Every structure is written in C-alpha cells, then in structure tokens.
Amino acid sequence: MARTNSITLKDHIRESLLVNRRLLIISLMMVVFIIVLILKLAYLQIFSHQYYTTLSEKNRLAILPIVPTRGLIYDRNGILLAQNLPSFSLVIVPEHVKDINSTLSDLSDLVTLSDEDIKRFYERLKAKERPFEGVPLRFRLTDEEVARIAVNRYRLTGVNIKPELIRHYPLGPLTAHSVGYVARINKEELRAIIDIANYSGTSHIGKVGIEKSYETLLLGQVGIQHVETNAQGRRLRTIEPLTTKPIPGKNLYLNIDSKLQAVAQQAFGEHSGALVAMDPNNGNILAMISMPSYDPNLFVNGLDTQTYQALSTSLERPLFNRSLQGRYPPGSALKPFIALAGLELNRISDTNTIDCPGWYMLKGDDRHYRDWKKAGHGETNLKKAIVESCDVYFYNLSHTLGIDNLHTYLTAFGMGRKTGIDLKGEVPGLMPSREWKRRTRHLPWFPGETLITGIGQGFILATPLQLASMTATLANRGQRFQPRMVYAIQDPANETLEISSSRTLDAVTRTDDLNWETIINAMQEVVHSIYGTARRINIKLPYKIAGKTGTAQIFGIKQDEEYVEAEVSKKLRDHALFVAFAPADKPRIAVAVIVENAGSGGAVGAPIVRKVMDEFLLEKKG
Amino acid sequence: MIPQNSSNLEKDHRLNMRRTVLTRIHMDFLLLFGLMLLAGIGVVILYSASGQNMDVALRQLVHLAVAFIVMFTVAQISPINIEFWSPWLFGLGLILLIVVLVFGEGKGAQRWLDLGLFRFQPSEIMKIAVPMMIAWFLSESHLPPSQLRLLFASMLLIIPTILVAAQPDLGTSLLIACSGFFVLLLAGLRWRLIIGSFILIIASTPLIWHYLLHPYQQRRVLIFLNPKIDPLGDGYHITQSSIAIGSGGLYGKGWLNGTQSHLDFLPERSTDFIFAVFSEEFGFIGILLLLALYLFIIIRGVIITAEAKGTFSRLLAGSLILTFFVYMFVNIGMVSGLLPVVGLPLPLISYGGTSIVTLMAAFGVLMSIQTHRKLIAS
Q1: Chain A window 85-144: which residues touch B at a Cβ cutoff of 8 Å?
Q2: B66 partner at 20 to 30 Å CA-CA among A64, A390, B5, B374?
Q3: Residue A114 known to be catalytic
C-alpha cells in the first residue's frame, strides 16, 4: 500500500505526545463525570434511601389510568342515541397467570363460559398489543357471577373483574349510518394514534359515523390515580390527593330528528336506498337513512366471524352508507337545475315551446334518443317539461347549452364536489366534462353524451347527500350551506351548550330572481297539478311541496326494444328518485330520496318524502 | 545485567510463552477478562430482570457468544489492514445509509434493511466506520491537522450523523458524532474551537428545539425536566427507576429480589433500564463494584491507546474506548435521572443483538491494536 511518507520519526514522537496529552485531559474529565454519577447515585441510594424504600417494597405504588367517560350523543330533541351502560367484565392478565388452561377451567366452574367465549379469548390473547393489559374473557357478568369471582379471588391470580362502561345504541339500526359505532382498537389504529397516553385503559375507538368524526371530542382526557398495591398487584387503596380527575368527553347534540328517521325507515319498508333530509336555511341534517341497515351494538364488543361475514358479504350491503357514499345517476331529478341553467344563461325563455314526438335526433346522427313517454308529450314548454318530465325537451335544452355550460352551472350547485359534511368518508360523485373524459378515458366528448347528461344519465353520478344539498340550495334561491350533523357540543361538567354556527358555502349566482321562481313554481306543479309526475301524493296536502321525480336507468335497452318493468330482473330495474322541499314559499325542509330498483320515482319515492315531510311540518294533535 | 541463571531463564521463557499464546491468538488478557466478567454479570442480572426467564438468559448468551466470536475474528486483522479498508467500509456504510432512508422500514422509523433472511442496521456499521475513516484521513498527514483537513474531517463526521438522525435515530447519531468527535479531539482539535462550538450549540438551543427535534423528542426533554407530566409513559419509567435505585440502599435487596411488577416493562424500555434492576438488587456497593469493572475496562483501553503504535491506531483506539465510556455514562445517567431518556442500552448488560456485536467488534479492534504492536513498530 503506497503511502506518502512525509512524516518523520520526530513527528511520530511529537504526535504520540500530543495524542497522549489529549488522552490524559479527557481521562481526567471522565473521572469527573464518574464522580458526578456516583454522587447522584449516592444521593438516591443513601440520602434518599428511606424515602424510596417507603415507596417501594412495603407500599408499592402503581400509577393507573382512570378511563374518561365517553360523551353521550343525543338527537335534536334530546333523545339518547348513544350511551354508556355499566357492565362487569371478566378479565385475565396473562403475565400474572401461571397456567392459563387451569385458570380457565377453574373459572368455568364459577361463571358460564361458552366455547365461543373461550375461542375468542384466545384470539384476543394472540392479538394482544400492550403488556400487562387485561384480556377480556367474558362481558356482562351477572351480579351472582361477580359475587362468585369475588369470593374466590384469593386463589385466582391474574383474574380481575373490570367494571366498564359499554357503549350502547338504544335505537339500534336506526342510527347505524349516522351515529356509527365504536369497537376495539386494532393495530393500525393504535399505531396511528398520536396522543397514545390519553388512550391508556381505553379499549374502544370510533370506527364510523359521528363516533369516528368526533372521536377526540367524545373521548375526553384520561385521569391518573396513584394506587397502593400488594405484592400480587392487588389494589389496597387509592392515594386520593395525588389523583388527577379524568375529563369526560363532550356530549353531542345532533341535528338529526330520530322520529323523522323512524318514519323514513318505516316508509322504506323492504326497499334498499337512502334518504337525506336537510334544513335549507342552515345546512342542518335532519335525517340520514341508508337501507338496509344493521345493529351497531353488534360491533361494540366484537362480532363473531360468522355474523360479520353474513353482514359484509350480503348482497344488500347493509354496512354500506348509501347516503354518503352511494353514487347514483340522478335521472330526471336533475331537470329543474338544467332548466334553471337554461333560463339564467338566457338560452331559453319560459315561453319557448318545442314539439315532443317521443324521440329526438341530432343532426348527422340517426340515433333516436327516446322519451320515456313513447307517444311523446306534444307541444311542450318549460313548465310542462318539468311537470310531466319530458326528456325530449331536455335533450334539446342540454344540446343548446352544451356540456361546458352544464358542467359549470351544475358544479356551482355542488355537483361533483364534496359537500364537506362533518362525517368522514364522503365521496364527490362525478360531474363529467370534456377535460374529465380526455383525462380518464382518453377520448373526446361526444354530443350525444351531452343529451344523456341532460336527463341525468350517462357518466353523471351524485350521492343522496349531494342531491339533498342541491335541492336545499334551490329552495334557498342560491344560498348554499355546508351540511352539518352536529347541532351543539355540550360540556357535561357544566351543561353549557356550544351551538355550532352554520357555514355558508359559495353561493350560486342569481341573474334574475324571476327565473328561480319560475322553476320553483314548475316544481310545485309536479306535485300539485293533475299532470304532475308526483301527483299521487297530493291528497289532503295542507302545504305546498316543490319537487321533482326521477327514474334513473341502470342499464340501457336496445334501440327498438321496450322496457317492460316486470320482465327485467329486480337488480336491473330503474332506481326511483324524488327530490323536494316544503313549504315551497318558505322552505324548512329539503329531502332527497333514492329507492333502489323500485321503478318509478313518483310512485315509490314521493310517498316516502311525503311521510317524512308530514312528520316534520305538521303539528301533532293530542 | 540480569544474571542468566537457570531459574531466571525459565521465568523469562514462561513470560515469553504466556505472551506468545495469548498474543498469537491476538487476545489481550486483561481486556478479555474484564469483558467476560461484565458479560457474565449481564446475563445474571438479565435473568432476574426478565422475571427469571431462562429463555431470555440463554438467548443473551447466544448473542454474547456470537459477539465474542466477532471480536476474536476482528482481533486477528492487523491494524494495517484495518487502516487500509477504512475508506471502503465508510463508503459502503454511507451508501447503505442512503439506501435505508429510501427503502428502509421499521416501526415508523427507517433504520432497518430487510434482507429477507435477517434485518440489519447500517447505522451500526457507521459506529465503527466513522472513527476509522476520520482516523485514517487524519493520519495521512501530520497532527495537529490543518484547518482544511479539519474541515473535511468534520464533514466526514457530520454527513453520516445527519443521515442517521434523519431516520430518525437520534441516539445512535449522537454516538456516531461522539466517536468521530473523539478522533478529532485526540488529533488536536483546538480547545478554542470546541468551547466555541459548544457555546454556539447552547445559543442555538431554541432553533434546535423548533426545527430539528421531532415532537416526541421534544416531549422526552420535557419529561426529563419534569417526569410528573407523563406519569403513564416515559415519565413512569424515570419515576419507577428512581424508586428502584433508591430503594436498593447500601447493600441492595439481593439477587432476584427486585420488584418486577413494579417496573411493568414496556418492550422498548426494559432493556435500557436494566441498571435500575441492578441497583435495586445490589445496592450502592454493587454499583461501585460495577463501575469499578467498567473503569477497569476503560483504563485498560486507555493504556492500550497510549501504548499504541502509529497515529491511526492511537486515534482509533482512543475514540473507541472513549465512546464506550459515553455509552455507559449516558445509560446510567439516563436511568438515574441525570439525563433525558435517549434509548441507549447499557453496554454488554442490556439485552440486545446488533449493538453488542458492534461493541465487541470495537473491542476486537482494540485487541488487534494492542497485540499487533511488534508488527507495526517494524
């Protein structure tokens, strides 16, 4: 190895002296450090020896968390939607148990233990995250079982009775998709928690719905207690002055009206679908239903695999929140918005008429775009087009407007955009455009697609929440509010209410107020005129409803085939939609409903909305 | 003139023989003795700390065996070769560090490279490679080094430190910086510079706090200043270990009599806080004896450094033994509440795999330096 030997012998000696000198200095510093260390240790072990001895062997100190009470959730009228019920659980700390099998057999003599209980215990044991944490064996012990365990405690090391508060949802499936549920924290969630000390002793975390979106508020702050234990870790007493009280989670009052929810759920009957009702004046969500639903209480303590499989693989998808995440073609329900676009952008007036023969054709294309009414509506003006839902009128209108205008105007209403509701998991739906098509399909936009979009079919998709929000915006003459689930937050300590204020979103510009009134009048006629597609709900109707029916096609039929409902299998039948608000002149409620595979919006969708509106608007007698 | 009668000749012969047997296998007797004693104590106390878990004790023995073999192997390599390979090892380590940052995985921190069969921390290599590199670089020309050389040497220190700290692994990065720093110090880094940079660091504490420290690291410092603010997390360990140490008293409670459930170990911590268990069971006297043993090893290392031949060997030996001191001091300081919790294990006593191996490799280097002296002198 070649080295530049520019270093002489004298340098070597000089260098070694230099290094040694440094070494000496550092060694002296090391000695000083060690002396400091010894002094600190002497301080601990000799001077403070008594103090620490007292704290240790004879009176052992354990610091335990005090779990905060989770906030309660109420509906707008104070009806309890989520509560904490006291319950005793049988819990085993495996690190303290010598032989788990024999302990289990001892226990089965004292309390009822099913095979399922034992199986799940072992599952939880394997999945255990934190050491010295109790693994639950059985929940909801009876008083007698609790007594038996207490009496035999002396010979059962590592077995504890844990008094717990178990989350309970009194209204069960009614609130599953709005309130959501809590369940045991899993590994990923554990890793993602930032303030992990606050979760000491807490086993559950919000998984969906309000329980998840407002987890931090509902959780509260963990408390700390200093506890004296004996050699086996059993509690002797709590050292009160050192206790830090836990701060309970905040209570939430939702805008939801559970009576309204119940009426809506019942009105759905056996159908699947979703309903969202909002107050257009502030964005409060009055009802949010997704059918079919499920019992959230099942999830709180963990489902057995069978039940879970049944729920998650069911074709009806009860676990899926359709209101928030279901994307449907809005169908004819979109027509009022398109008509409004036509008026506001000055492309048509309310007096223009066209002739509707039952079909429409584009220049240079021999495809017939069909109207749902085979024979056509004849001479049709704007009002008639909305009232009787004439497709041909809207093919023509959307062709006049063009996809770019449609995109701009509908997007202003919220189409294709998330509403920003205070629930996690919202999807934005889809408002197609030239740019979108090029970006995702690498194809140009075709004129025929504009026509289809004009009747709410094709690529266009909306969630029931979006439809409700758009309807509310219409009811409000353009003013947009962010939908909100939570009405107020309550501090359980002093019961003060902090009411959340409504948040406005960017409004839809009004060019001419008269246009809006024209559309709204037409929508009123949908219900109140004898030609209206929703006329069947106009029986003993003491207030004015403005609405629009929709029938969304799932699949297209060939050019010359007929759509015969009875022949099409249920899964492929059209969805029934209805959007409406009432009272028409001073709206207090806006509703969007979609009933899957139910055919006609007027026949199936509107009656549900009528029931909900009756419940909300009419004074109860007696 | 020593009379060459028969008994003297025999004595000489015996002395020569003893030197040759151990020296031939390149083991330094005193160092070996100290390390084995320390390792033995480690296994004994580990057995107690783990709740009399034979499994853990046996596994530690295996780790130690592997580590001793590594030490033995390294000791066979002559310092001339070690010097030659320094830049290559450093370069390899540097590349691996960058690879880890890009591809690595770990508990939310990128420290490990998963090589299928086993996992591997490149930052461990750097603990030895950095002082080797700097020692190599500085011994190329005379000491004390010129400003320029010094600056470059500092870069050789700073870059790996930053790469490791970005993983993030503050503890190891500080150790690496330390070992490199010791080389600079021994090579003649001017005291003025050292004091000056200390003042600079202290002055920029608020900057370091805000921009360099992660929230959990900030929290650690706060907990150190007042353990009471975190009674359920790290603060718990500091409080519990103070109680354990304090209750040990002068003579300790005796082996296996420590209060296990007391400490309720969390996985990351049980191995770091093992000194608390030792203090509780063997008391102040036990601690003094343990410290004496550590000192014995350190003094032997310092002597080896002083007697080393060649600048490279001297610088490297010095840095390695001083870093060993830092290891020990930081861990004991942390456990007794003198320093914030930084997650450094107690050398040769804490349960662990890679860190023991690296440590013993360093001692292998020391032994190599000591037992290859004749070679270098010629």
Answers
A1: 96, 131-132
A2: B374
A3: no
Whole-angstrom distance, CA of residue B317 vs CA of residue B310: 11
Residues in a beta bridge with A204: A184
Decide if A331 contacts A466 (C-beta within 8 A): no
Alpha carbon distance A34, A48 (integer Å): 20
Rounded to whole angstroms, the Cα distance separating A121 from A138 reads 8
Residues A53, B246: C-beta atoms closer than 8 Å: yes
Give exposure, B72-111, as e/b (b: 16+ Cβ within 10 Å).
bebbebbbbebbeebeebbeebbebbeebeeebeeeeebb
More confident residue, A172 or A598: A172
pLDDT digits (tens, 9 = 90+) for A424-473: 999 999 999 999 999 999 999 999 999 999 999 989 999 999 999 999 99
Q: Measured between alpha carbons, how far is B169 from B158 in angstroms, rounded to an integer?
A: 14
Q: Which residue has the tokens 């979108």?
A: A436
Q: Which residues contact A173 (CB under 8 A, 6 or more apart)?
A: A265, A293, A294, A295, A296
R_g of chain A computed on alpha carbons = 34
Our CA-based measurement puts residue B245 at a distance from the nearest CA of chain A, in whole angstroms, of 6
B377 interfaces chain A, CB cutoff of 8 Å: no
pTM over 0.80: no
Q: Which residues of A touch B261 (CB under 8 A)?
A: 60, 96, 132, 231, 233
Report the distance separating Cα A382 and Cα A398, nearest Å.
13
Q: Could you give the CA distance from residue A323 to residue A268 in angstroms, rounded to a whole number?
A: 14
Of the candidates B137, B140, B141, B127, which has an alpha carbon nearest to the alpha carbon of residue B184?
A: B137
User: What pLDDT digit, counting tens, does each position of A240-262 carry?
Assistant: 777 888 999 999 999 999 999 99
Report d(CA B178, CA B344) in Å as an integer: 13
Give the DSSP letter of residue A78: S
Is the Cβ of A435 closer than 8 Å to some Cβ of chain B?
Answer: no
Write down the ipTM of this complex.
0.83
Strand pairing of A73-74 and A251-254?
parallel
CA dist A318 and A326 (Å) reads 12
Tokens (6 digits) for B216: 């959990």
Can you tell me the distance from the alpha carbon of B165 to that of A65, in angstroms, rounded to the nearest whole number?
33
As a whole number of angstroms, the distance between CA B319 and CA B329 comes to: 15
Alpha carbon distance A206, A83 (integer Å): 13
Chain B neighbours among A 62-91 (CB < 8 Å)?
A: 62-63, 65
CA distance A468 to chain B (A): 42
